[in-house]
Write the structure tokens for this entry.
Amino acid sequence: MLSKSGIRSLKWTLSLVCVLVFTLNTFAQETGKIQGTVEDAETGQPLPGVNVYLVGTELGAATDAEGRYFIINIPVGTYDITASMIGYAQLTKTDVLVQIDRTSNVNFSLTTSAIEGEQVTVVAERDILHRNIKYSAGNDERASHSGPCNPKCGRVCEQAGRGFR
């Protein structure tokens, strides 16, 4: 039979084991990873800046300068994965399997596509210009003077912000 101290020690040990098992199960994630490359279908050149995402989730990545992408911490399951970029046709690969601690390789070859938009018509409107009027300062007829400013002539003249008469 166990003494009181032995029972306390056993309880303490069992409690510690239970906490460790619970903690390890909490941190043991059942996730995988998807990686791959995206290239131009015609030239074979890598495409940087392509958005690659798992349909129906918030998981995704953008390709780097070499056209590579990595999506990590994906819960185990089957997914549809889409690659899209302006100027290229969107491509979706279906039934991509993600397994625990495994990396799935999914590569894309995108084809170019024209971007279609609505036709826009711009109509320019402008005020009618009076080409025979060189200067106007209200209804003062003396203000239509267009020659050099001479304060002695009796006409209103503007020169560098100062008015003369």
Residues 32 and 71 are 9 Å apart (CA to CA). The chain has one helix and ten strands. The first helix runs from residue 4 to 27. The chain has a mean pLDDT of 79.
